[in-house]
Amino acid sequence: MENTFLKEFEIRWSDVDANRHLGNFAYINMMSHTRMSLMDRIGFGHHAMKQNGIGPILFREEIHYFKEVLPGTPIRVSAALKRVSEDFKFFSFEHRFYTNNGENVAYGEITGSWMSLSGRKLATPPGKLIEAFGEIPKSSDFRHFAPGEVRLPDVYPVHLQQ
Questions:
Q1: For 109-128, how does the pLDDT look when each residue is reduced to its tens digit (9 = 90+)?
Q2: Does 17 fall in a domain?
Q3: DSSP 3-state assignment of 57?
């Protein structure tokens, strides 16, 4: 796991669901916290995003569970850049959840973009962020998005008829 960003978590009472194991909401929160810790480490945390008037926005989050995680099990969560568009407007991160002995118990992937906080629309990040992205560990299958690959092809809004 050379060149891997890892964040360690303790399973809290509030992370456990009705089945007494780590709930899906906790996985999503841990992935988010790990990504933001990584962004902070490369110099593009909350303060820098505010200064540049941008913020991350997610299109989808997906989690694959391999083994349940019970209270009292310390977890380490990795973050690696999986995909990025040529202009760095769109990104995808992968996350792996590990026990102390290195067992991979879950895999998560998110896809998102940057949003202008003033215009409330998708935006290309500033050059400083693009430069900082060079410091992010890459997944073993890292590549650029192909045109049209960011969104799922058959998923679109279906509004209620009033």
A1: 999 999 999 999 999 999 98
A2: yes
A3: strand
